[in-house]
Write a structure and sequence with these properties.
Blueprint: H1 3-14, H2 16-20, H3 54-66, H4 71-83, H5 87-100, H6 105-117, H7 121-134, H8 139-151, H9 156-169, H10 174-197
Length: about 200
């Protein structure tokens, strides 16, 4: 087994909680916002999705019925679906938000996360590239790009490059701290793999 593959498995086991924290936007969300869905281990039951905030949904739909080009309400409605892990609905409304505001890297990144959670990792990576074309130092995009590269593409070295950049750009932020923990886990897994495999 290649050391990268060993590191990938060990890091996934040791840091599942952190890796499950796929960061959305920098936008202010409700205080009790649930994290996005974590990649589940093969054979394990998926976690139950958080409940939909139907009162908030109805309120925002009413706003959009009267003002269909309201960008803020469109993003907030997408966020409501994101928080409830209703990925197709979140995708629909983030796409609409980007039609109204194409230069919004936060909405673009949340769209990418939604694509990933809807089992479309290639679309997620394409969306993250769009986000980074708008803001090359958008750390939430870089962090999430690393998650998709590690889990969907099993390209740990590329994921490490993204997380390293996050730590370099914003070491004290929540995503910077999470990226540092991931990097430490990967390094520990490589060390363990080297110690157990011996010379090749």
């Amino acid at each position: 087994m290649k050391s990268d593959a060993i590191a990938y498995v060990v890091a996934g086991i040791c840091f599942g909680v952190i890796l499950g924290w796929v960061i959305g936007t920098q936008q202010v969300r409700q205080a009790d916002r649930q994290p996005a869905a974590a990649p589940t281990a093969q054979g394990s039951a998926p976690a139950q999705a958080p409940p939909l905030d139907t009162a908030r949904e109805q309120s925002l739909v009413a706003v959009l019925d009267g003002d269909p080009d309201n960008v803020e309400a469109t993003i907030q409605l997408a966020n409501v679906y994101f928080d409830a892990e209703r990925w197709p609905d979140a995708i629909r409304w983030y796409e609409r938000a980007l039609e109204l505001d194409p230069g919004n890297p936060n909405a673009s990144t949340d769209l990418g996360v939604s694509y990933y959670n809807d089992n479309s990792p290639d679309r997620a990576l394409e969306q993250f590239e769009h986000s980074l074309s708008l803001d090359p130092q958008h750390t939430k995009t870089l962090f999430n790009k690393g998650i998709v590269l590690a889990f969907a593409k099993e390209d740990l070295s590329a994921a490490v490059a993204q997380w390293t950049r996050v730590v370099d750009l914003a070491p004290a932020t929540s995503e910077g701290l999470a990226a540092r923990q991931l990097l430490e886990g990967v390094a520990a897994a490589h060390n363990d793999a080297g110690a157990t495999s011996g010379p090749q």
